[in-house]
Amino acid sequence: MPLKTKTSKRSTKIAVTLLSGLLPIVLGFVILHMQAERALKQSAQQTAEEAIRQFELMLDNTAQAARELLPLAGQSCSEINLALREQVTRRPFVRSTNLLWDDVIYCSSLFGDYHEKIASGDYSQGQLLLMKGNPVTPDTALLVYRLSKGKQGAMSTLDGYHLSNVLRLIGRQTLLALQIGPNWLTADGKFHDEALPAFKVAESKLTSSRYPFSVTAGFPKGETWVYMTSQYPPLFSLLIFFGMISGSIAHFLQKRTSSPTHEMQRALEAVEFVPYFQAVVHGETKAVSGLEVLMRWNHPKEGLVRPDLFIPFAEHSGLIVPMTRSLMQQTATLLAPLSASFKEPFHIGINITANHCQDLELVKDCREFLDAFVPGSIHLVLELTERELIEPTTITHQLFEQLHDLGVKIAIDDFGTGHSSLGYLRQFNVDYLKIDQSFVAMIGIDTLSSHILDSIIELAVKLDLAMVAEGVETQEQSDYLSAHNVNFLQGYLFGRPMPGAEFISALSAH
Question: Which fold has domain 273-509?
Answer without folding.
Answer: TIM Barrel (3.20.20)
